[in-house]
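[User] Once you have settled down, look closely at the record that follows, and write a paragraph about the fold.
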Amino acid sequence: VQLVESGGGLVQPGGSLKLSCSFSALGMDYNNIGWFRQAPGKEREVVSCINGRDGATEYADSVKGRFTISRANAENTVYLQMNSLKSEDTATYYCTRVWFGPSCRPFGSWGQGTQVIVSS
């Protein structure tokens, strides 16, 4: 099972970005996927996750109302739409498989991530 993140970049505060997490494997329709981020000098933290069966979602308090996670099973992709970006959202963003729940506990391997820089 391989997951690849893309869509990061440089954006001004208040701007938007849409990240993609593409996966390739049979039977992934019902796997739960989470987005995580790690800022320089800080520990990796959960951002959001989505249930593969019913589409239920969880969000970290810091991104609620600004970020939206979604999935397109036909495209084997999970998205993270990020709006009203702040400088504190600057980090490398990763996706991986998770145990779905409030903590979005990860159990999959980590990829290279995609870097998001929010700066004027």
Observations:
- The chain has a mean pLDDT of 93.
- The radius of gyration is 13 Å.
- The chain is about 0% helix and 50% strand.
- Residues 2 and 47 are 20 Å apart (CA to CA).
